[in-house]
């Protein structure tokens, strides 16, 4: 996958962070991250939208957050805000297929049917 050269995003660091923090971060944070990830994989998603997506995902996987992820309850609030803003900006590219892929991954990780 190609990413804009000025971001600190990589597939491996995304999956590593997601797997390491899925239960702690909670379903809402992970769902938004997966929506963005799968939307970025689509060839139909334009470059400007992928730039927004990779920027949000780079912030999510960055060890340097405005609010450190280790802080209980509040640690992922800045990540959620960044991901939610990116989802809002690129919502046209978060298709039913993207949502289905995210739903399947959430079900795999959280072990129950998610809506």
Automatic annotation (TrEMBL):
UniProt KW Cell wall biogenesis/degradation keyword: no
* The entry's keywords: Membrane, Transmembrane, Transmembrane helix
- State where the protein is found: Endomembrane system
Q: Give the principal location in a single coarse category.
A: membrane
Q: Where do the DUF1232 domain residues begin and end?
A: 49-84
Which spans of this chain does the record mark as coiled coil? none
Q: Could you tell me the membrane topology recorded for this protein?
A: Multi-pass membrane protein
Q: Write the protein's name.
A: DUF1232 domain-containing protein
